[in-house]
């Protein structure tokens, strides 16, 4: 078998160069004069005023900070935003809900000056002047944490914060000031961020907090958080929701985008629902709203939030992992003597707090990370030393945790991404010549089946909405008929309607005889989808149990290392 060069960091099959960035990476220029820095914490000053002057107080959200009227935006034939009208008031948390591709990020990117609206009016604190660019948005008190992190991994936290302030005419923000700023903001908002840590060493939850510190390091009245919880563990999420509540109580307005309806009910004061680019609903009475109500508004039909499936009928062993040892990026033991079997026709859920070796385990199984010792077998085949290409062709499907890095080639079309591992095989190529009609027909079929919202299969994967990118990866990995499907966070960033669909497809793969290894940070997902649960801690399986009748509290204790 010929094996293309692959250092393990690229999607399997095709060696690639560079991936495009979705957003304009221009570093915004901001004012770092002393007066400006001194004025960063203006919300406290507002709060110090009597309520009748500030217009802000308990149960009394303040004046309108953001006023959007009749805003529309198209990309070619895609009407991403249609005649949108909404308002955000001071001290209010506004949740923006909608299916993948509904237009949430597009709307917020316009408020942040990354994209210019086609028509409509955006008023910020009474000022109707159109927002020119992110620098302008920042100077007018808007901060945004994007759906995809924008931090520079090789720099420290303070250096990253400094970067956003660097190009100022009034002088460069020096490192000591940046460090102090990080320390103060971290303490004030209970964000637990170390200014001197290297960003690449930080877990995603902490990186998310660094993004927030970075946004808050400028004067922020309106903070936009685009799916900040998608990559967080439940614990980290609860912490972040607490931080958001504190910020709002301090007078900051927040626009919060999420697909997790529980979070909306926990923290939002006001909800807008988008569908196909338009506002289709608004909720202000959160206390009397249920997740089912929200799901129905989003999708336009009722959604089954619980997975319906028959009992599994496990067959022969497809995956056999024995005494596996794998190291992490820092060369420390991450998987430490891992034993597990997955049979054909069953879903085994790996439950554990993130950082207990799950990522390294999946990467090793996918051929992306070296195994130190132990074995992994797929049926009769020893995969311990296989590379990603060999692993795939042996019949292992892999929905990777990080779709941007390992799942997609952003510059390639949806169609090319759908045949990424098979591009040189029949029927997609014949005698070395690619069969474009076949590729297109196959891609059209999957686009339809998986509801990949796009202008066509020729659209670049990089320009898809976050959840639709995920659907491309899921469609590819489920459709080639894997013997073993490894699904790592398969519904991350995916809307409720699509979660239902992906779950059904995973169950269908199981019923078709595939063994499924499900790794998810959502215990709910594991409990509802898995047939058997393996609880991991410290890189080992500490207990296996049937999912039926599994005790959530016991799993929680085992995950925390109490065993
Ligand atoms: N630069 C672009 N070029 C072409 N189409 C685009 C571009 N940016 C966004 N779109 C399209 O606009 C629509 C709205 O996308 P957007 O990213 O706003 O969705 P979203 O609501 O944020 O979805 P998700 O929940 O998946 O993040 C999608 O159909 C998307 O493909
Ligand atoms: Mg989005």
TrEMBL record:
<dbReference type="InterPro" id="IPR027417">
    <property type="entry name" value="P-loop_NTPase"/>
</dbReference>
<dbReference type="GO" id="GO:0005886">
    <property type="term" value="C:plasma membrane"/>
</dbReference>
<dbReference type="GO" id="GO:0005524">
    <property type="term" value="F:ATP binding"/>
</dbReference>
<keyword id="KW-0813">Transport</keyword>
<dbReference type="GO" id="GO:0016887">
    <property type="term" value="F:ATP hydrolysis activity"/>
</dbReference>
<feature type="domain" description="ABC transporter">
    <location>
        <begin position="66"/>
        <end position="299"/>
    </location>
</feature>
<keyword id="KW-0472">Membrane</keyword>
<dbReference type="InterPro" id="IPR050107">
    <property type="entry name" value="ABC_carbohydrate_import_ATPase"/>
</dbReference>
<feature type="domain" description="ABC transporter">
    <location>
        <begin position="319"/>
        <end position="563"/>
    </location>
</feature>
<protein>
    <submittedName>
        <fullName>Putative carbohydrate ABC transporter (ATP-binding protein)</fullName>
    </submittedName>
</protein>
<dbReference type="InterPro" id="IPR003439">
    <property type="entry name" value="ABC_transporter-like_ATP-bd"/>
</dbReference>
<keyword id="KW-0547">Nucleotide-binding</keyword>
<dbReference type="InterPro" id="IPR017871">
    <property type="entry name" value="ABC_transporter-like_CS"/>
</dbReference>
<keyword id="KW-0677">Repeat</keyword>
<feature type="region of interest" description="Disordered">
    <location>
        <begin position="1"/>
        <end position="24"/>
    </location>
</feature>
<dbReference type="InterPro" id="IPR003593">
    <property type="entry name" value="AAA+_ATPase"/>
</dbReference>
<dbReference type="Pfam" id="PF00005">
    <property type="entry name" value="ABC_tran"/>
</dbReference>
<keyword id="KW-1003">Cell membrane</keyword>
<keyword id="KW-1278">Translocase</keyword>
<keyword id="KW-0067">ATP-binding</keyword>
């Amino acid at each position: 078998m010929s094996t293309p060069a692959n250092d393990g960091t690229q999607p399997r099959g095709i060696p690639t160069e560079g991936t495009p960035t979705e957003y304009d990476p221009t570093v915004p220029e901001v004012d770092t004069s002393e007066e400006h820095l001194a004025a960063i914490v203006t919300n406290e000053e507002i709060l110090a005023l009597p309520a009748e002057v500030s217009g802000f107080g308990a149960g009394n959200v303040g004046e309108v900070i953001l006023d959007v009227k009749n805003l529309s935006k198209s990309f070619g034939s895609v009407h991403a935003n249609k005649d949108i009208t909404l308002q955000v008031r001071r001290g209010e948390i506004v949740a923006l809900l909608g299916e993948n591709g509904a237009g949430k990020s597009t709307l917020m990117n316009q408020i942040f000056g990354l994209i210019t609206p086609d028509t409509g009016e955006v008023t910020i604190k009474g000022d109707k002047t159109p927002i020119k660019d992110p620098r302008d948005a920042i100077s007018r008190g808007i901060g945004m944490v994007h759906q995809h992190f924008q931090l520079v991994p090789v720099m420290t936290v303070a250096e990253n914060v400094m970067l956003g302030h660097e190009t100022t005419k009034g002088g460069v923000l020096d490192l000591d000031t940046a460090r102090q700023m990080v320390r103060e903001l971290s303490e004030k908002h209970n964000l637990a961020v170390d200014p001197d840590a290297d960003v690449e060493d930080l877990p995603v939850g902490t990186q998310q907090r660094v993004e927030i510190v970075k946004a808050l390091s400028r004067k922020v009245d309106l903070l936009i958080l685009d799916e900040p919880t998608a990559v967080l563990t439940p614990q980290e999420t609860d912490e972040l929701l607490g931080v958001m509540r504190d910020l709002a109580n301090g007078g900051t307005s927040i626009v919060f985008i999420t697909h997790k309806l529980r979070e909306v009910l926990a923290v939002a004061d006001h909800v807008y629902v988008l569908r196909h680019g338009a506002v289709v609903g608004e909720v202000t009475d959160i206390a009397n709203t249920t997740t089912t109500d929200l799901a129905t508004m989003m999708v336009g039909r009722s959604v089954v939030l619980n997975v319906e499936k028959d009992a599994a009928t496990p067959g022969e062993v497809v995956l056999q992992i024995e005494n596996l040892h794998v190291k992490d990026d820092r060369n420390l033991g991450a998987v430490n003597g891992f034993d597990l079997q997955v049979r054909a026709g069953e879903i085994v859920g790996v439950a554990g707090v993130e950082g207990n070796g799950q990522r390294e385990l999946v990467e090793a199984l996918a051929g992306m990370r070296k195994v130190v010792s132990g074995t992994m077998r797929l049926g009769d085949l020893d995969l311990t030393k296989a590379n990603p290409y060999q692993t795939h062709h042996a019949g292992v499907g892999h929905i990777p945790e990080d779709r941007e890095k390992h799942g997609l080639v952003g510059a390639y079309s949806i169609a090319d991404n759908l045949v990424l591992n098979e591009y040189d095989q029949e029927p997609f190529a014949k005698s070395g010549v690619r069969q474009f009609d076949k590729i297109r027909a196959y891609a059209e079929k999957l686009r339809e089946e998986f509801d990949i919202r796009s202008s066509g299969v020729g659209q670049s994967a990089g320009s898809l909405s976050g959840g639709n990118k995920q659907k491309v990866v899921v469609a590819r990995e489920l459709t080639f008929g894997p013997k073993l499907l490894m699904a790592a966070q398969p519904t991350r960033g995916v809307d409720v309607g699509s979660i239902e669909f992906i779950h059904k497809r995973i169950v269908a793969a199981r019923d078709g005889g595939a063994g499924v290894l499900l790794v998810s940070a959502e215990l709910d997902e594991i409990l509802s989808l898995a047939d058997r649960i393996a609880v991991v801690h410290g890189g080992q399986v500490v207990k296996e149990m049937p999912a039926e009748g599994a005790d959530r509290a016991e799993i929680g204790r085992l995950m925390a290392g109490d065993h």
